[in-house]
Amino acid sequence: MLAGKLAGIGAALGVALLPAAVSSFLLLWWLEDAPWDFVRLALMVVSYLLYGFIFLALTLAVSSRWSARMTLLGMLTFWAVSSFVVPRMVTDLAARWYPTPARAAFDAAVAHDIRQGIDGHNPQEERLKAFEARLLAQYNARRLEDLPINPAGLLMQESEEHSNQVYAHHYARLWSAFERQVALHNAAAVVAPVLAVRSLSMALAGTDVFHHLDFADAAERYRQPLIKTLNEDWAYNSTLATDETYVADTRLWTSVQPFTYTPPPLTLALKRQWLALAWLGGWLGFSLLALSSAARGLTATT
Questions:
Q1: Around Cβ 168, how many Cβ atoms within 10 Å?
Q2: Are 106 and 174 in contact (CB under 8 A)?
Q3: Residues with Cβ < 8 Å from 87, sequence gap 6 or more?
Q4: pLDDT tens for residues 84-95?
Q5: What pLDDT, in 10s, does the model give residues 155-214?
């Protein structure tokens, strides 16, 4: 009897959701430059189907022991708590246990370390004066104006490299906090299956924290050599006397390769969400056990 109910309700839901699934596949086929593929979409559909099956199986299992009114009340309570209350609580706990700075505080800390150094003992002014002294000694010159190059470009690059170290230091701490928050959300899926499905769907869509960090890292690896190329071209193709007439020509721009980005493979995206996969599998196994137990109970009473 439970199998018949499961099949009937599942078929009704399938008919209702089929147009949305077909439309999604057609849209993906039309968007040829989409950063994700049919396999990712198919797995996303499967994850949501499993999530729906878990609630359906638990509802049928509970209905075999409780009245219709108690089943409705109990499952609505479970759905509301696991879908709204628990995610909100986990978000608040993650922010409390693994806090991230406000944008203004983050920018202020970066600006301070750029001026004073990460250890607080390497002021920017002293650092740049030492770099100027090294330039003068390298070219055996007494004044910056006597250099056969434009020191402004090299000073700019020196400041850029120091800023890169400061930003890398602060962003590493920020990314670490984000990753710990995500780990807490995935761990909380033990009591809220929606958290597991949400993490999986974001990973499959390429919109989770790990995909963001991968893109940001790729963009930064492209940006730093680009800025160095621009600064060095400015430095070695002009002087302080000719600085105002310097123009970056076609030769420079054609030497710069365009930015290309390859998203992480699907296997890596799923590997990073192993805990969410484990808890979704656990909920699926629990719901199947509950449904099987309910079916045996009905058989024994008949």
A1: 11
A2: yes
A3: 185, 188, 192, 194, 195, 198
A4: 999 999 999 999
A5: 999 999 999 999 999 999 999 999 999 999 999 999 999 999 999 999 998 999 999 999
CA distances to 29, 63, 117, 158, 170 from 111, in Å = 46, 61, 10, 16, 11
- For residue 81, the 8-state DSSP code is I
Check: CB of residue 157 under 8 Å from CB of residue 232. Answer: yes
For the chain, report the end-to-end CA distance as a whole number of angstroms. 11
Nearest Cα to Cα of residue 49 among 258, 271, 295, 280: 280
The size of the chain, in residues, is 302
Q: Where are the alpha helices (DSSP H) in the chain?
A: 2-30, 38-63, 68-80, 86-97, 103-116, 124-139, 151-187, 193-205, 209-236, 250-255, 266-271, 274-301
pTM (global) more than 0.70: yes
Distant-in-sequence, close-in-space partners of 207: CB < 8 Å, separation ≥ 6: none
CA atoms of 162 and 158, how far apart (whole Å)? 6
